[in-house]
Amino acid sequence: MVLLHGLTSNQFSHTKDTYAVKASGDRMKDAGILEGYLLIVDRAIEPLNNHIVIASINDEQTVKRLRVKKGAVSLVPENASHKPIKITGEMVF
């Protein structure tokens, strides 16, 4: 099966957990993720501190760097013009 522009399903370890999402906005520009870029996501990979993740917050997806420090979780943009999102107990994360 061809997924995207010559990528095939045998190139992915977890094909049932892998999908593509298009980046929007400029929040990750300093990490080289620009508006319109196609991101390949593998939901089977455990997100770790300081990794770039696709996170779902209150049913909306966002691309950010995951930061875990002393039990506090934040999603940090790679653009100084934007503020981190601090994950709270009221959020569906």
CATH superfamily, called what? Umud Fragment, subunit A
Please tally the helical runs, counting DSSP H or I stretches of 4 or more residues. 0
Helix-strand string: EEEEEEEE
Number of strands: 8
Anisotropy-based shape: globular
Indicate the radius of gyration in whole angstroms: 14 Å
CATH class term:
Mainly Beta
Q: Mean pLDDT, as a whole number?
A: 87
Q: How much of the residues is beta strand, in percent?
A: 35-45%
> Largest beta sheet: what is the strand line-up?
5-6-7-8
Q: Tell me about the biggest sheet?
A: 4 strands, antiparallel
Low-confidence stretches: none
* CATH architecture descriptor: Ribbon
Give an overview in words.
The relative contact order is 0.19. The chain has a 4-stranded antiparallel sheet with strand order 5-6-7-8, with no helix packed on it. Strands 1-2 form a two-stranded antiparallel ribbon. It has a single domain (2-86), classed as Umud Fragment, subunit A, CATH 2.10.109.10. The protein is mainly beta. It has strands spanning 2-4, 7-8, 18-22, 38-42, 52-57, 60-69, 72-76, 85-86. The chain starts with a strand and ends in a 7-residue tail after the last strand. The radius of gyration is 14 Å and the shape is globular. The chain contains no helices and 8 strands.
